[in-house]
Amino acid sequence: MSSTIKVLLAEDQSMVREALAALLGLEEDIEVVAQVGRGDEVLEAARAHDVDVALLDIEMPGCTGIEAAALLHRELPEVKLVVLTTFGRPGYLRSAMEAGADAFLVKDAPAAQLAEAVRKVLAGERVIDPTLAAAALAEGANPLTERERQVLRAAADGRTNAELAKALHLSQGTVRNYLSTAIQKLAVRNRTEAVRIAREKGWL
Amino acid sequence: MSSTIKVLLAEDQSMVREALAALLGLEEDIEVVAQVGRGDEVLEAARAHDVDVALLDIEMPGCTGIEAAALLHRELPEVKLVVLTTFGRPGYLRSAMEAGADAFLVKDAPAAQLAEAVRKVLAGERVIDPTLAAAALAEGANPLTERERQVLRAAADGRTNAELAKALHLSQGTVRNYLSTAIQKLAVRNRTEAVRIAREKGWL
DNA sequence: CGGGCCGCATGACATCTGTCATACGGCACT
DNA sequence: AGTGCCGTATGACAGATGTCATGCGGCCCG
């Protein structure tokens, strides 16, 4: 029989990361050979340890798990990619798939699915929650332009139009125009709702 | 030597919960005797299993880990309480302590601290991050009145003044006054920032 | 009993925000 | 060459939001 599956674990919360490592450690055929707590340490660690599967949390400092996935996919295409996230946002699933992910798991799925997903992706299968896949397809693509997203992101923490304009090197009127179109595209009433909805959909 | 320490684990994300259980399962002297995924199932499970220590995540459906802690503290005062959270918000620490928690851990602390905290609280010790404790003391108490908190919470998802007034059975002017005083107390410029800051401090 | 804070309210005012029309250059697709 | 979208900008306008002064009744504390 073949040797153990070598896994890289990327997750910023140490306690969760080490707990997941403990969980995977219980499996005979899986070995966690590297752990990192930042997105921007993923590639280096993957190179250093010759991993079979990378398990990537999305929310991480440095860069997101999705960005890390895209990078790995480009640099080490033979590494299988499992994206793990707290939030089952359809937009996340879409981005993860575009980044070359082989599996997409949400953290409130049963723990058994984790080891299972690792084995499946190594066998060439793709693993995604059918409900989430349906939601991602139903919702359609992100309607926001890059600029609209930038403005929304910057507006998220309560900045005023003048501050947004300064931060993005735009005129105040332009900022208002972008916010206005974003608000209309998302069918909401103000910037706060727009930020909330865009976040929920994973469009931000 | 004494028998194993019986632990109840409350955490809504199955994968994290089972991973933490796996982690604790590696310790010879600790046994996870019950797992729940909702705050409002904690008391019942604790009663059913005669637990020594309850490990409570804060963010849970049903009721928060802090509310569950307060309930356990009242109903089963001999059970030791460890509160676990993603966010190291000083206000959370304060509330947890007021609810009778014996330990307060953030999830980005090393995993080893978890088992250690379980043993320590059982030995009658209290476990809190000194940095966080300092922050909680430095920041002072929540300056917001109950009404101000209500209005901020309701305003968080982008409701308009008219909607807030209707939802809270207040006049529109009163809503604006509350928001205005909250904005001043938090030393910010608008409601969105006020919500953000209040959240960060755990005052919401 | 008086002072102070809270909850609640109103009115006036200044500023911020959202909408709309309009404009121009660039780029892509037909 | 024409159409359409994007990025950028302006000006005008209506409505939402934030500030301030002021008022009243209730409650607690000294």
From TrEMBL, chains A, B:
Coiled coil residues, start to end: none
4-aspartylphosphate: modified positions: D57
What region holds the Response regulatory domain? 6-122
The alphabetical list of record keywords is:
DNA-binding, Phosphoprotein
Write down a Pfam family by its short name: Response_reg
* Xref: InterPro entries: CheY-like_superfamily (IPR011006), Sig_transdc_resp-reg_C-effctor (IPR016032), Sig_transdc_resp-reg_receiver (IPR001789), Tscrpt_reg_LuxR_C (IPR000792), WalR-like (IPR039420)
According to the entry, every stretch annotated as the HTH luxR-type domain falls at 137-202
Q: Does the keyword Metal-binding apply?
A: no
What SMART domains would the database entry show? HTH_LUXR (SM00421), REC (SM00448)
- Extract the CDD domains matched here: LuxR_C_like, REC_DesR-like
Query: What protein name does the entry list?
Result: Response regulator transcription factor
Q: Identify the species of origin.
A: Streptomyces thermoviolaceus subsp. thermoviolaceus
